[in-house]
Amino acid sequence: MRVAEIAELTGTTVRTVRYYHSLGLLPVPDERGGWRDYDLSHVARLSRIRWLVQAGVSLETIRRVLDESEATGVEQPDDVPAAGTVEARAAAGSVVEDLAGALAAVEDHLAEVARQRDMLTGLLERAKAGSTVSPMSPRMAAFFDRLEQAAADEATRCAVRKERDLTDLACYRGRMPPEAEFLFVDPDPDYDAESLALYSQEPTEMSEAQIEQRAQVMVSRMEARLPPERLAALASSVDTDAVRGLFSLIGATGYPDARLTRALEREFLTAIDRWHPS
Fold this sequence. Notes:
Blueprint: H1 3-9, H2 14-23, E1 31-32, E2 35-36, H3 40-54, H4 59-72, H5 85-128, H6 138-150, H7 154-172, H8 189-199, H9 208-225, H10 228-237, H11 240-253, H12 258-275
Antiparallel strand pairs: 1-2
Helix pairs in contact: 4-5, 6-7, 9-12, 10-12, 11-12
């Protein structure tokens, strides 16, 4: 049969058949009457190649699989030692490793696809609900939406946006500890007003004492909103290395101020120690 016929028979294209020839995966048949004459052995080999490709096996691994199959299918005379037995076993082991690696890659891909599906499901639900599509949680996004709308001037609004961008970055990078969710409270006019007052202060214009005081105020405000048992539960579950990683990421951005970032990190870690049940 001609190349177009074997391509159609095996569900591929003439170009692919010729590509396999160029790689040495498919033997080039003898010519008959000025055209290449493919026989059933070519059909069988090409079918196996396509079958393995559809399984996600690389072409290099397919070459070894086919070579190993052909080697094991050749009968040796009884009086001839099994030449290359060690080599054959090594090749078989290599094929097993390659196929196991291909399977692991597919499983990793499936896990990634499942993760993407879950993300898209969540994003779709948020979009349907009219929430901001963002790496941060709906609770966090709602907090910043509320403060930005309530800001009295552009400078405060800009500070809120920058804080939002930091939170977005931390969530995207996986640096936001899950316990941080409690920092973003439900609508509370008094708490929101206090938050906006803090955002209206420019850290770069503060003294060291003012920086320390602001960090203490920010932590104490959160402490005042939660009962001792809730604080104890948070202290028991939070990963302090994750907290340090979060502040390291914030510090790398250079915002809001290196001094305030360091002061907040110290205050949070001190508070976590304090919240632990005695």
